[in-house]
Automatic annotation (TrEMBL):
Transmembrane segments: none annotated. The lineage of its organism: Bacteria, Bacillati, Actinomycetota, Actinomycetes, Micromonosporales. Glyoxylate binds at Y136, R171, H263, R266. Residues 6-367 form the FMN hydroxy acid dehydrogenase domain. FMN binds at residues 85-87, 114, 134, 162, 239, 261, 294-298, 317-318. Keywords: Flavoprotein, FMN, Oxidoreductase. InterPro entries: Aldolase_TIM (IPR013785), Alpha-hydoxy_acid_DH_FMN (IPR012133), FMN-dep_DH (IPR000262), FMN_HAD (IPR037396), FMN_hydac_DH_AS (IPR008259). Its cofactor is FMN. Belongs to the FMN-dependent alpha-hydroxy acid dehydrogenase family. This is Alpha-hydroxy-acid oxidizing enzyme. The active site is at H263 (proton acceptor). One of its GO terms (molecular function) is oxidoreductase activity, acting on CH-OH group of donors.
């Protein structure tokens, strides 16, 4: 770390953990976490949008310590965020999703299990805590609905359907690295998980992208979500929404929430930054469903900004992988601790005792 840190415990920010993780991970794994699609312009836009949003703090509002607790889709959370669904976490630490799920449970925030988790739904159920399941709709409808049943049986409290991956975006870092899964990492919940095209290095680009082309449904429609709505009583959240019209459609069809997301800049390069359209989507749904946001969250101040312009909460993605790579469960727990401390401090400094007060803050976008 060039003398900056001697132990992970000395990290004071997510960026400290990112830099530490990059010293211990092979370059292709650092790229797998950090990279976006194309020129990575949307990934940069996410960060720029957050940096341009300023908050007008209130003063002389003395009161109790800030309380950022909330309820998200029936799950009580000590903080207004959940751990985002991220694939193949055993790439970054032997415990993989077991470590991040334990950290989330200890912090009292929901953990979203990816369809492409390298640990099974049933193993993660043993950890406890609030768990949601992120669903990629597969070409095989029967296997897709079997995943839903397994999620229900293992105690997941919500389903999060990712809608923005008809194909995987062209992630040039992975393409140039010829990225493929090592033999010990697999999609543990799926029939093709033990050995798949995701493991086959061909020299012709990303094996993981080839795998998703082969297995994911390429033409998902609202009819698929109507079918899902008829098959489960769990809350359904649509992830990957950027147009207010799509958010209105989700609400009209009885979806319980949307995640305003450009997949962290990993799908359509040139897509709008999530924060930029968040207020419009909140207005469009008019309270008929909850609105979360992801893409670019790196600090408690970022969480405050998102909530101030209408988000019920956010999803935290890449920071969790940096923490996991840096120090397993302890590193993942440190990320959540840092974000929680930063959020509470930001709330106190802006004169907010709770999240309702955060939503009443005035914000300004500066150019």
């Amino acid at each position: 770390m060039s003398g900056v840190l001697s132990t992970v415990a000395e990290a004071h920010s997510v960026d400290d953990l990112r830099r530490w993780a990059e010293t211990v991970l092979p370059s292709e794994l650092s790229d797998f976490i950090a990279g976006g699609s194309g020129t990575e312009s949307t990934m940069a836009a996410n960060r720029a949008a957050l940096d341009r949003l300023t908050v007008v703090p209130r003063v002389l509002r003395g009161g109790p310590d800030a309380d950022p607790a909330t309820t998200l889709f029936g799950s009580r959370s000590r903080l207004p965020f959940a751990v985002a669904p991220m694939a193949y976490q055993r790439l970054f630490h032997p415990d993989g999703e077991l470590a991040t799920a334990r950290a989330a449970a200890a912090a009292g925030v929901p953990f979203v299990i990816s369809t492409l988790s390298s640990v099974t739904l049933e193993e993660l159920a043993e950890i406890g805590g609030e768990r949601w399941f992120q669903l990629y709709w597969l070409r095989d409808d029967a296997e897709t609905l079997d995943l839903v049943r397994r999620a229900e049986q293992s105690g997941c409290r919500a389903l999060m359907v990712t809608a923005d991956v008809p194909v995987m975006g062209r992630r040039l870092r992975d393409v140039r690295n010829g990225f493929a899964l090592p033999p010990h990492v697999r999609a543990a919940n799926l029939r093709f998980g033990a050995r798949s095209s995701a493991h086959e290095t061909t020299g012709a680009g990303s094996a993981v992208a080839a795998h998703t082309r082969a297995e994911f449904h390429p033409a998902l429609t609202w009819d698929h979500l109507d079918r899902l709505r008829s098959c489960t009583g769990l809350p359904i959240v649509v992830k990957g929404v950027l147009d207010p019209a799509d958010a209105q459609e989700a609400a009209a069809r009885g979806m319980d929430g949307v995640v305003v997301s450009n997949h962290g800049g990993r799908q359509l390069d040139g897509a709008v930054a999530s924060l930029t359209v968040l207020p419009q989507i909140v207005e469009a749904v008019g309270g008929r469903c909850r609105v979360l946001m992801d893409s670019g969250i790196r600090s408690g101040a970022d969480v405050l900004r998102a909530v101030a312009v209408g988000a019920a909460g956010v999803l935290v993605g890449r920071p969790m992988l940096w923490g996991l790579a840096a120090d397993g469960e302890a590193g993942a727990a440190l990320v959540l601790s840092l974000l929680g401390d930063e959020l509470r401090e930001a709330m106190r400094l802006s004169g907010c005792a709770d999240l309702a007060a955060v939503r009443d803050l005035t914000t300004r976008v500066v150019c």
